[in-house]
Amino acid sequence: MNRCKKTAFSALCLILLLAVAGCGLLGGAVVKTITPEAGADTVAGLSQAEREALAAIKKSSGCEGESAAATDYRVGGNDVLNIMVYDERELRSPGLRVTPDGYISFPLIGRIKVAGLTTSQIEELIAQKLARGYLVDPHVSVQVEEFDSRYYVIGEVKRPGAYPLGSSDISLVEGIGFAGGFTNFAARNSTKIIRNHNGREIAIRVKVDDIMKAGTQLRDIILQPNDIIIVPQSFF
Hints:
It contains six helices and eleven strands. By secondary structure, the chain is α+β, with helices and mostly antiparallel strands. The chain has a six-stranded mixed sheet with strand order 1-10-9-11-7-8, with helices on both faces. Strands 3-2-6 form a three-stranded antiparallel sheet, covered by helices on one side.
């Protein structure tokens, strides 16, 4: 009888151990979604400038005009651009939509790839091409009239800013990689995603280091349009 009890107890321990291991593999402690209470500080570890950038991003959810988010925005497929060359009426292209694979066609210079570039980089690219036998010292202005899909990264990454979401899924780890990766001061396992879900703001806490170490055993988080990735500074 004692042997039966001992065997049953061992089996129960084994089941509990496998259950705990299974929760680890599924990311139970790695990914946690919370609904912040009113007044809760969800951006601990950010500098004042980064907090202001976050506020600007939230305020400009429609991304209209020149905002802190739009300034660093990298153009993606299906965005709509307004391009003009000063003193050259024939070279104005309002409402120019970027193709899904990231190209536009512009008078005189033809088809050029703009996906992944900021508006200032596109201005410089077009000006350089127009200066090759077409215009003398051209001045180009590029503005984003309509944004398609983008996400934001602020905090301890090498290239904070706004980045396009293409037609294929981008994971959290990939999104941070596009922003240059973590700095040496990043609190990697304190990374958060601020997301609007059914009209309410939620915060998704992610232990990124645990995901990267586990490889394919843990499912990464897929980014959604207007997600804000926050990487706070480590205090240790």
